[in-house]
Each structure stands twice: as C-alpha cells, then as structure tokens.
Amino acid sequence: MELTPLGCCSPMVREPLTPDQAEGLAGSFKALGDPVRLRLLSLIASHAGGEACVCDLTGEFDVSQPTISHHLKVLREAGLLTSERRASWVYYRVPAGALAALALLLDETPGAVRRTSLSRTTNPRRSRSPI
Amino acid sequence: MELTPLGCCSPMVREPLTPDQAEGLAGSFKALGDPVRLRLLSLIASHAGGEACVCDLTGEFDVSQPTISHHLKVLREAGLLTSERRASWVYYRVPAGALAALALLLDETPGAVRRTSLSRTTNPRRSRSPI
DNA sequence: TGTCAATATGGACGCTGGTCGATGTCGATG
DNA sequence: CATCGACATCGACCAGCGTCCATATTGACA
C-alpha cells in the first residue's frame, strides 16, 4: 500500500511494486478471488441502503451458513467489509473507497506515455536498466 | 463478464453479479492474488516498451525459473499477459485494457445515489425485495 | 549437425483454503 | 430464568496451489 500517485498512470504500471506492496495487495485480490465472496460483496453493495444482514445473504447460495460466515470474515479482514450488530442481526456494508482504492491501482490511463524500445537481437541478460 | 455499464456506478455495485459472472471474475482476481504474480505484472507493465522477456524477470525473485514460468502461464491464461517469441527470448506484455476492465468493475463512483432504508426492528427473514 | 542458452513442461510434495456438521455465543422475548 | 433465533467458531476433510528438481523443447550459432 502507500502508493503515491504522481505521474502519468497507476503505480503498478509506472514502476515495479515492492515485495511489501505486492504482499499487501495480493491479500486484497486474494479476497476477491472467490466467486462466493464476489457475489457477497456485490449483493451487499447493491442492496437497499448499501447494507445487508446475513439473513439476506445465506439464501442466495448453495453453501452452508457457516461457510457464508467464513467468507464474510475473510472479506472483513481484508478491509472490504465492515460489520455492525443491531438487535439480533449483523449488518454488513462495503466501506467507502475500499473497492475504489484497488480500482485506482489497476487503472492504466490508456493515453499513458511509454518509453519505446526496439526488439533486441543481442542477449539482454538480466538488464535492470532499460535499453 | 459481459457487464453493461449503463447506470450510476459499476455493475458490481449497481446489481448483484450472477454466479457465472462471479465465476469468471473470480478467476481474474485469483490470478492477481499472489505477490509474485503482482510483481511480475508490474515489472512487465513498467518495463521499457511495456514488455519484458523472462530473463529480465527471473533475477528479481527468490523463486526458481520454472516457478516464474508457471506464474507467467497463470497470468497469460487469465488474459492478463500476452507472450511473443522473438529469437531465443519470449517477451511478455500486458494487453491494453486488461487491467482497466477489472478497474472499471471495482470503481464505485463516490457520488452514486443509493436508496436509503431505515434499520429494521422486525425480522427481515430472507427478503429478496428491498424494504 | 552438435551444442548451448532460454524457456516450458512434468511429477512430486507440503501447505493453504473452501467446505461441512456440530456447537458456542449473544440478544430478544416470554 | 428459559428458550429461541441469528450468527460465529471449531475441528476435520480434501482439492487446489505454489514450489522445487529434473527434463523436454526451441532457436541460434559454430
């Protein structure tokens, strides 16, 4: 995380991610890398009031209630959901900007200026500096 | 996939993803859910000319060459990389729009208008229709 | 044609992660 | 206080994934 947007395009496209950045981001994307979790996120975000209780969700899936609870926990620990207990029910919502932060990282502003290079005919080895 | 952007915000926030859509998207995010793959993607995208050969990449990691090759294959099969052989070397690049497509899906246009709902005091059961 | 360098593939191994049933916790309600 | 419903936690099982080493494939070049 802690990527400073200052140039033409997203940090990921402008300069290599550090191992630490990659580790953190991979955690977020891993949380999105399950169809049940994606649908949960989408169901909650699109639900009335931008929130939904677990009882609104369990019936939409073919998996058990503990499994839903598990996926909600994964999303919450990834910062993609917040939960709040009201009476007997627990309401989940997508915190503002949680998804947008990842979107920003992936967006590659199409008109970005890139250095161009010719195809090499000699062995490039492990060149750390561009041609 | 095949999400038609027509309303206020991203498909994911506007309406629930179908199981099929979620399945496809989860595949893409799963490919991004590994720190080595994220760094590979970033290294390639930020490299001179927007492309890099495998020899530019292997030295940057503490994992073996076959492992790098494996991760490149995963990214390629997810549509996040294309490869082209030139002479002895294979050059990888990020196809235009590949990342932007995912970014679009996550972006939740902050000013989006949402229906509001009061906290419930009666049992919501599994309400498919909003209050 | 033989050799070498760059990259991919195959097989194996250990660990992570998605799933379940059983059970615990917490709040409401009588 | 007892009970019930909503949700979370626990422990177990098994498929899948990341990793490695060994080896195959491909193209350049002598």
Keywords, separated by commas or semicolons:
homodimer, 131 residues, mainly alpha, Arc Repressor Mutant, subunit A, 3-stranded antiparallel beta sheet, 6 helices, 43% helix, 10% strand, disordered C terminus, DNA-binding
Polypeptide structure, described:
The structure is a homodimer of 131-residue chains. The first copy, chain A, is mainly alpha-helical and 131 residues long. Chain A has a domain at 17-103: Winged helix-like DNA-binding domain superfamily/Winged helix DNA-binding domain (Arc Repressor Mutant, subunit A). Helices cover 43% and strands 10% of the residues of chain A. Chain A is built from 6 helices and 3 strands; from the N terminus they run H-H-H-E-H-H-E-E-H. Chain A has helices at 11-14, 19-32, 35-46, 54-57, 65-77, 98-106; strands at 51-53, 82-86, 89-93. In chain A, strands 1-3-2 form a 3-stranded antiparallel beta sheet. In chain A, strand 2 and strand 3 form a beta hairpin. In chain A, helix 3 (35-46) crosses helix 5 (65-77). Chain A is elongated. The first copy, chain A, starts with 10 loop residues before the first helix and ends in a 25-residue tail after the last helix. Residues 111-131 of chain A have low confidence and may be disordered. At the A-B interface, helix 1, helix 2, helix 3 and helix 6 of A face helix 1, helix 2, helix 3 and helix 6 of B. The first copy, chain A, binds a DNA duplex (30 and 30 nucleotides) through residues 34, 36, 53-55, 58, 63-74, 85, 87-90, 123.
